[in-house]
Amino acid sequence: MVTVDRLVKDYGTLRAVDGVSFTINKGDILGFLGPNGAGKSTTMKMITGFLTPTAGTATVDGFDVAKDPIEVKKRIGYLPESSAAYPEMTVVEFLTYVAEARGITDKDQLNARLADVIVKCHLDSVKYRAIENLSKGYRQRVGVAQAIIHDPKVLILDEPTDGLDPNQKHEVRKLIQAMSKDKAIVLSTHILEEVEAICNRVIIIDQGKVLVDETPAEFKARKPGATIDEVFRELTNKTILA
Ligand SMILES: Nc1ncnc2c1ncn2[C@@H]1O[C@H](COP(=O)(O)OP(=O)(O)OP(=O)(O)O)[C@@H](O)[C@H]1O
């Protein structure tokens, strides 16, 4: 569903992403991990067509992000690290606005999509409230709802549980898992237990390069008896010292 091939991004003299390659298929939840500044957001922004790669390619459902950005955007939903906010809009107004911008203008289709995402993201009780008055957990669910309003095949979530309390984290993780059957999902996170809880693949990126691409169980088995956290620290510290 998503193929990333030797992707590179330079910001001036800084090579933020340095030859990253991986593929993800329908049903995959890929945990994208790495220390601060590793290049996770930059990679995700290139897959969504938000940033142009310096070199390499990314394709979504067979469409090249650089050559067919419109076809890619139809197939991809994106939750950025800090969601664009329209604080004064109600949840329904905001989701309607996003749906219309996505080309969903037929009234019946629009209402069906709104009803679907409101149920999936458990937003019914707040749908007529202004976004600025919602808790962070609800705002994050609105962010997920806008990302899936056009029922995309691929979902890119940048730190979807960041800043949420444990109950809210649990809710958002359940939501991601429930959606994974018919989608390919990439999520970046700093939380290693999140990877263990919901991902079937883990990629660790450090200084723009992929260090690890395997299952969470394989990752943990690298150091029997250690926590996933300890394995991560050992791996990423090594590259800093190297
Ligand atoms: N617009 C930009 N201009 C210049 N440098 C940038 C820009 N965006 C990111 N960088 C740099 O590129 C590198 C990779 O950043 P990126 O945000 O992709 O990392 P990240 O892994 O998502 O980090 P974090 O976990 O902190 O969000 C960092 O060194 C960052 O400072």
Descriptive notes:
The protein is an alpha/beta fold and 242 residues long. It has a single domain, classed as Rossmann fold, CATH 3.40.50.300. It is built from 9 helices and 10 strands. The chain has helices at 40-47, 69-75, 91-101, 107-120, 136-147, 166-179, 192-198, 216-221, 228-241, and strands at 2-11, 14-24, 29-33, 55-60, 63-64, 76-79, 154-158, 184-189, 201-206, 209-214. A 6-stranded mixed beta sheet has the order 6-7-8-3-9-10, sandwiched between helices. Helix 6 (166-179) links the parallel strand 7 (154-158) and strand 8. The mean pLDDT is 90. Adenosine-5'-triphosphate (ATP) binds next to strand 2 and helix 1. Residues 11, 14, 16, 34, 36-42 line the site of adenosine-5'-triphosphate (ATP).
Text of the CATH class: Alpha Beta
Which of globular, elongated, flat, extended, rod-shaped describes the shape? Answer: globular
Helix content, binned percent? 25-40%
CATH superfamily: P-loop containing nucleotide triphosphate hydrolases
Determine the structural class based on helices, strands and strand pairing.
alpha/beta
Count of individual helical segments: 9
**What sequence of helices (H) and strands (E) makes up the elements?**
EEEHEEHEHHHEHEHEEHH
Radius of gyration based on Cα positions: 18 Å
Bound molecules: adenosine-5'-triphosphate
Write a brief structural summary:
With 242 residues, the chain is an alpha/beta fold. The chain is 38% helix and 25% strand.
